[in-house]
């Protein structure tokens, strides 16, 4: 077996998630430290490995895989004796994928929103709205934990991913056992793993302590649009899609289904009217997000998990390019799907959520700048015609849905600066019925 080199930092939660996966699989990692605090990740040799300058990055005998979720899936697919940690069954896999995207798009993104300003922005405090945003993510996780593990009755890579973040952020924004009993019981369950403390527990505590001391060193610490509802389309289909046209992830599902030639029975959800908070909808998705699909008796949430499921279940041979079986290409697509949930979409949501649901009239420039950074990261990652190579994949469908909304509300500051991105958007706009399924909902 070739040597597995992991570019990593033990303080970093996604790196620890990969460490836990490797331990669970009995794989040895040659850990090469990347010190984010001294800017190792911005050096040219690292940017060659990952132009989006994040860790972890895996080097498997010369095959480079960035992004923790993609790496975990890759390691299980390639090296595990069985599929327990990442099931092959399309429905079970979709549940694990949904939990992985919940981690990148909600848990990790909200933690980063707090930590980044302290670690890299020289700020001393945690603004109350950001702390509250993290507490809301605790609540979502608590409500998600209906079984012993985050994606059902068995331990999967989704548990490694979620616990790497939760165990870290809980040391910064307290998470009382009385309020979140299921999360505490789940962490206690994971602590039984013989490698837990070494691979995650110690690093999580260390990160929280480090953040608090850095905040103290920076100063005093104190924790202190109209939604368009789509008419029901009257299509006879066995697959119901609960969505709203304004929802980028909802549109990614529609774009995908359209390419697969799959009719959907659209169930419009009016977020402003609170359709997603009704008891009936919460039964479908305790995280109260759209899109959700109901395919016969199977209910799935999270657009990324759903589009993978649709291709796996309904895709014909001619659709296999959307999510090819080869583990390396798949890992690259997964990495881009997590870039969409963890960076593009989560930053869009940071901006809009307080305005849409909190009645805030603030239009904070720093959130727009944070969002626009997404253009730069995607532009730098685009080396070919599409996000992964020269063929359209699910990565493109997912990212274009978000980018279209970003562009409609916060146009690129300078289009000449993002030539590759502009060309890609243009290429995507030529997809069949693109206007109908994406552009009209974005503007
Ligand atoms: N979704 C990514 C997130 C990776 C990530 O943001 N890692 C942080 C460290 S915890 C990082 O490398 N930050 C440096 C940067 O973004 O420049 C993953 O799971 O790999």
Chemical compounds bound to the protein:
glutathione
In terms of DSSP E residues, the strand content is 5-15%
Cα shape: globular
Quantity of strands, as a count: 8
Tally of alpha and pi helices: 16
Average residue pLDDT: 93
From the alpha carbons, calculate the radius of gyration and give it in angstroms.
21 Å
- Rounded to the nearest angstrom, the distance between the terminal CA atoms is 50 Å
Helix content: 40-55%
Structural class: alpha/beta
Strand order of the largest sheet: 2-1-3-4
Mind describing the biggest β-sheet?
4 strands, mixed
Order of helices and strands: EHEHEEHHHHHHEHEHEEHHHHHH
- The stretches of 5 or more residues where confidence is low (pLDDT under 50) are 221-235
Verbal overview:
This protein is 54% helix and 8% strand. It starts with a strand and ends with a helix. A four-stranded mixed sheet has the order 2-1-3-4. The radius of gyration is 21 Å and the shape is globular. Helix 1 (13-25) packs antiparallel against helix 8. By secondary structure, the protein is an alpha/beta fold. The structure holds glutathione.
Summarize the structure.
This protein is α/β, with parallel strands linked by helices.
Describe the secondary structure blueprint for this structure.
Elements: E1 4-8, H1 13-25, E2 29-33, H2 44-49, E3 57-60, E4 63-66, H3 68-79, H4 90-119, H5 128-144, H6 157-169, H7 181-191, H8 196-218, E5 239-243, H9 248-260, E6 265-268, H10 279-284, E7 292-295, E8 298-301, H11 303-314, H12 327-357, H13 365-381, H14 394-409, H15 419-428, H16 434-442
The chain binds glutathione (GSH).
